[in-house]
UniProtKB/TrEMBL annotation:
Organism lineage string: Bacteria, Bacillati, Bacillota, Clostridia, Eubacteriales
Single GO molecular function: (S)-3-amino-2-methylpropionate transaminase activity
A Pfam cross-reference name: Aminotran_3
Family: Belongs to the class-III pyridoxal-phosphate-dependent aminotransferase family.
InterPro entries: Aminotrans_3, Aminotrans_3_PPA_site, Class-III_PLP-dep_AT, PyrdxlP-dep_Trfase, PyrdxlP-dep_Trfase_major, PyrdxlP-dep_Trfase_small
Keywords carried by this UniProt record: Aminotransferase, Pyridoxal phosphate, Transferase
Keyword Transferase applies: yes
Required cofactor(s): pyridoxal 5'-phosphate
The species this protein was found in: Desulfosporosinus acididurans
Gene that produces this protein: gabT
EC number: 2.6.1.19, 2.6.1.22
Top-rank taxon, per record: Bacteria
UniProt protein name: (S)-3-amino-2-methylpropionate transaminase
Length: 451
């Protein structure tokens, strides 16, 4: 059974069937939608996938955080089939479908935003959720500007591209929307030398305040948009004390705090959302965006805020044809049920403990492992040329990714220097599969660092 299988490579990669399909891809699909993996999926179960040539891979990327409950969960398949027998589509601006209401009610229960009464809207992608959150903040506050951060990734639509830090994602497609200003994110590993962690956090809080002086006065700022753990930026967690400082500045100046939990949500962190950690400490966001694992692979995303904020939004500026599609809503309700029933938040912490023990050992053993970081089961390993200089080592990471894939482990790089290996393994991975993946990754590190 694939769900319990271990990585097994039977052919040179890509195999003959995969090679033929990849060649067709090159002729039919834009090269800009690039892929470095020599794999064409035929089926997936749990944390494993099989390619068209019968090779079996362990997937530590999970569609970039989409598959927290794994591939092809049988209960998810049944939930979508059951809904498909009734109807595929019902636009909420035209007819009400109860699945949208049930999912909104559930999201309002579990999303930790400020305010006792909450409301949720649905769209289709992470970028759509982020753009709608910004529109909501601007409509509610009647202010034109937002603040984002270095290292941020919020999507590839026009406003989201302006918000995204790495301009390789948006080269040559400007001009971009105005009113987007950038502060420095607390990248503690590369923070000021000689500072304590507390001093670094104070340093980054002071750098944030500089935006008010140099870019936009606070009274013109509608919202601050934060990834609780930066994804593409290198799996960098926002320190809780820094969040506290930003929350205080937002409250003092009537600015909304938006948490972009597109990649961090749905048990990945050891809680349903990273914002749960913030809320328990008294610093809940005003608006939270979610997507990726929300519906197990069916396109869906959400924006949740207090009823007060949503009721202050001008009519007709939010909504859309496919937002809250019935199939996606049925899938999302089942995903949340599975996460809660199967204690996947606890499983995330268990996986994280096993991996961190190994990752920290590598940090001690290898000069090239500069930093190990993350929250729960969203972890990153940053590779450098040496610990003293901390010079990024993207070539080593690229070699490790290719070597691991050739041995049946799919991993992905991240970071502003492309020198971080990200860990987004499905939370349904077995202990045996996890151990197998750790062995493959360690062998790849050993082999590639000696080349």
């Amino acid at each position: 059974m694939l769900r319990n299988a271990l990585p097994t490579i039977n052919t040179p990669l890509p195999g003959p069937k995969a090679q033929a399909i990849i060649e067709r891809r090159g002729k039919a699909v834009p090269n800009a939608i690039n892929c470095v993996y020599p794999c064409v999926i035929s089926r997936g179960e749990g944390a494993m996938l099989e390619d068209v040539d019968g090779n079996i891979f362990l997937d530590w990327v999970g569609g970039v955080g989409v598959l927290n409950i794994g591939y092809s969960h049988p209960e998810l398949i049944e939930a979508v089939k059951e809904q498909s027998d009734k109807y595929f589509h019902a636009m909420m601006n035209i007819v009400t479908h109860e699945g949208y209401i049930k999912l909104a009610e559930k999201m309002n229960q579990i999303i930790p935003v400020k305010g006792e009464k909450r409301k949720t809207m649905f769209v289709n992608s992470g970028a759509e959720a982020v753009e709608n959150a910004v529109k909501i903040a601007k409509s509610y506050t009647k202010r034109p500007n937002i603040i984002v951060f270095s290292g941020a990734f919020h999507g590839r639509t026009l406003l989201a591209s302006a918000m995204t830090s790495k301009k390789a994602y948006s080269s040559g497609i400007g001009p971009f929307p105005d009113g987007v200003y950038r502060a420095e994110f607390p990248y503690l590993f590369r923070g000021p030398q000689g500072y304590t962690e507390e001093e670094k956090i104070a340093y980054y809080a002071d750098k944030f305040k500089k935006v008010f002086e140099e870019a936009s006065p606070p009274e013109y700022v509608a919202a601050v948009v934060i990834e609780p753990v930066q994804g593409e930026g290198g799996f960098i967690p926002a320190p809780l004390e820094w969040v506290k400082a930003i929350r205080k500045l937002c409250d003092e100046n009537g600015i909304l705090m938006i948490a972009d939990e597109v990649q961090t949500g749905f048990a990945r962190s050891g809680k349903m959302f990273v914002s749960n950690y913030w809320a328990e400490a008294g610093y809940a966001p005003d608006i939270i965006t979610t997507a990726k694992s929300i519906a197990g692979g069916i396109p869906l995303s959400a924006v949740t805020a207090s009823a007060q904020i949503f009721d202050g939004v001008k009519s007709s500026i939010i909504g859309g044809t496919f937002g809250g599609n019935p199939l996606a809503c049925a899938s999302a309700l089942k995903v949340i049920e599975i996460i809660e029933r199967d204690n996947l938040c606890e499983r995330a912490l268990d996986i994280a403990e096993k991996c961190k023990e190994k990752f920290n050992l590598w940090q001690e053993q290898y000069e090239e492992v500069g930093d190990v970081r993350g929250i729960g089961c969203m972890m990153g390993i940053e590779f450098v040329t040496d610990k003293k200089s901390k010079n990024p080592n993207p070539k080593l990471v690229s070699d490790i990714v290719k070597c691991a894939a050739s041995n049946g482990l799919i991993i992905e790089s991240a970071g502003i220097y492309a020198n971080v290996i990200r860990f987004l393994c499905p939370l349904v991975v077995t202990d045996a599969q996890l151990e197998s993946g750790l062995q493959i990754l360690e062998s790849a590190i050993e082999k590639c660092r000696s080349n």
